[in-house]
Amino acid sequence: MKRLVSFIIPTYNSEKTIKKCLESVFKQDCRKEIIVVDDGSTDSTEEVVKQFKIKFIKQKHKGAAAARNSGLRIAKGNYIAFIDSDVILPKNWIKKALKKLNGEGIAGVGGPGVSVEKSLISHALDSLLYGIDASVSSKYVDSLATMNVLYDKKAIDRLAFNESFKSAAGEDPEFNFRVRKRGYKLLYDRSLWVYHYHPTNLTNLLKKWFNYGKNYPIPYLRHPEFRNLGFYARVFYMPILILLIFLSFLN
């Protein structure tokens, strides 16, 4: 019998993207359980999700970290896949990810997000946040984005996301640093890409960038041994954002 994969999808007001996300998960060739945790949505997300045969948790709005923890508590899989509700998986994603995860000492594997939108800002956002690097096909890293990651359940047993992170930024590196401290490796591979939607509303986009710029340095301050150039680059997120917005209008 195939080993079980638990797909955990935190969601908040994602009525426009969650259907395509779930359809892409159902197309994955594996034995699976799908857990959607609705973090207090105020739109029709719940109605869309309940069209599918999945495990559904509704909770008060506590943030993505708390939503992932709610999913983890009931997950029965040998493997844990975290994806976001604005992500679409290619049909062979799980097959590739399971193969990559077979390496010795590897706790998790993940890859980049490829923007569904064609705007300059969307592509720049994915490049800065999710590590699209054309010069590197595969490498070991200190953190993987939880919008696109598969873990071996044994490697993250008894670990939970830090729920002091209320917005969806910073909680994934902090979690991954604790995985690394257990002696495990994390593998980033460009072949494990996913489609990723971004906010098209400028206000929402600015809010998303602000949260990243505010929260991402925190894990590096708590775990200084993982500081690198990426830590210092994040200090400049907001100036970079302003420049990209300006360039996009010129474009």
General description of the model:
The structure is a single chain. The protein is of the alpha/beta class and 251 residues long. It has a single domain, classed as Spore Coat Polysaccharide Biosynthesis Protein SpsA, Chain A, CATH 3.90.550.10. It has ten helices and eleven strands. It has helices spanning 18-26, 45-49, 64-74, 93-100, 120-130, 171-181, 202-215, 217-222, 229-234, 237-250, and strands at 4-11, 31-39, 55-59, 79-83, 87-88, 106-110, 113-115, 138-141, 148-152, 185-189, 194-196. An eight-stranded mixed β-sheet has the order 3-2-1-4-9-6-10-8, sandwiched between helices. It has a three-stranded mixed β-sheet with strand order 5-11-7. α1 links the parallel β1 and β2 (31-39). The N and C termini lie far apart (53 Å).
Set down the secondary structure blueprint.
Blueprint: E1 4-11, H1 18-26, E2 31-39, H2 45-49, E3 55-59, H3 64-74, E4 79-83, E5 87-88, H4 93-100, E6 106-110, E7 113-115, H5 120-130, E8 138-141, E9 148-152, H6 171-181, E10 185-189, E11 194-196, H7 202-215, H8 217-222, H9 229-234, H10 237-250
Parallel strand pairs: 1-2, 1-4, 2-3, 6-10, 7-11
Antiparallel strand pairs: 4-9, 5-11, 6-9, 8-10
What key attributes describe this structure?
22% strand, three-stranded mixed sheet, 251 residues, Spore Coat Polysaccharide Biosynthesis Protein SpsA, Chain A
CATH architecture title: Alpha-Beta Complex
Average predicted confidence as pLDDT: 84
Number of extended strands: 11
Write down the overall geometry.
Answer: globular
pLDDT < 50 stretches: none
Strand order of the largest sheet: 3-2-1-4-9-6-10-8
The amount of helix comes to 25-40%
Q: How many discrete structural domains? A: 1
Order of helices and strands: EHEHEHEEHEEHEEHEEHHHH
- Supply the number of helical segments: 10
- Please state the structural category: alpha/beta
Distance between the termini: 53 Å
| Percentage beta strand | 15-25%
What fold name goes in the CATH topology slot? Spore Coat Polysaccharide Biosynthesis Protein SpsA, Chain A
Radius of gyration: 17 Å
Under CATH at level 1, the class stands as Alpha Beta
**Largest beta-sheet details:** 8 strands, mixed
The H-level CATH homologous superfamily, spelled out, is Spore Coat Polysaccharide Biosynthesis Protein SpsA, Chain A
